[in-house]
Amino acid sequence: MTRNKIYKYIFSVVLFHVALTGCMEWNYGQPEEFVSSGHGLFITNEGNFQYGNASLSYYDPSTNTVENEVFFRANGMKLGDVAQSMSIYDNKGWIVVNNSHVIFAIDLNTFKEVGRIENLTSPRYIHFLSDEKAYVTQLWDNRIFIVNPKKYEITGYIRVPDMTMESGSTEQMVQYGKYVYCNCWSYQNRIIKIDTETDEVVDELTVGIQPTSLVMDRYNKMWTVTDGGYEGSPYGYEAPSLYCIDAATFTIEKQFRFKKGDWPSEVQLNGTRDTLYWINNDIWRMAVTDERVPVRPFLAYRDTKYYGLTVNPLNGEVYVADAIDYQQQGMIYRYRADGELIDEFYVGVIPGAFCWK
User: How many CB atoms are located within 10 Å of the residue 63 CB?
Assistant: First the structure.
């Protein structure tokens, strides 16, 4: 899929969201019983927009076995429309389902629903501050929602300055002390800083056009990568960059420029948070202390559509999600830390995000 096609797809999401008048209906069937324990990997499969075919897969690395559609099979109902991300907190898995405007909380071992937060705009990610407070970022909204995870309720909002409801977005979040930092992607070029005591945006840092990821390394340095926009964009088009930002001073320490037309994404860290990984056609890897990006990739491009990436925090194995053609079941490739292929397995349609249990 070309960049322009991807953006046309994104804009179709906007038009549908504006026209949306009702909430998704949950269709229930006969649930199955699961008993899962130990170390494992959840894969959120986005599914096709407006088809309601998002799904959740679960992979056990110790047995090389995958179970697909576990949310549907455990609860007797579909996950919804566009599964965006998943986080673990308070022994629950929190699945953010973008176009269904909902976050499901599930039991980590049985995969059964234990609660849900509804009436969100278009949720992207959830960041937990305590048992009774979390932030939820949004697409096509100038607000970050404040929720109570214990009561599964929306309790307030953080308004982001200079962002419109129609084109803005807030994305991934990391925390340093009492401050939460968040990258603003759609038609934006900044990282915002939120005071969690006042729930207000207190500062912002300008980076390149459309920062797509945000992670925090072991030295309290934040890393974000920009996609540079696209040719013909009213917001601009430039070469993308990888940025290293000091969390304490909120200043840019390093900037690594890519070629115009590159589209780096999915910045991830290993378990010790001292090695970066990202997708730019190939899979790339570098130490967070390096002064330049590598000249050779960690994993070579396979003439397919690498869409997601994660690193096993226990042993450094790398998992790459392949969306193939965005229509059929996607594939996950599992590699050793030295790049040797260990396993590959099918999951749902458009596997996009991972969550380690």
Answer: 9
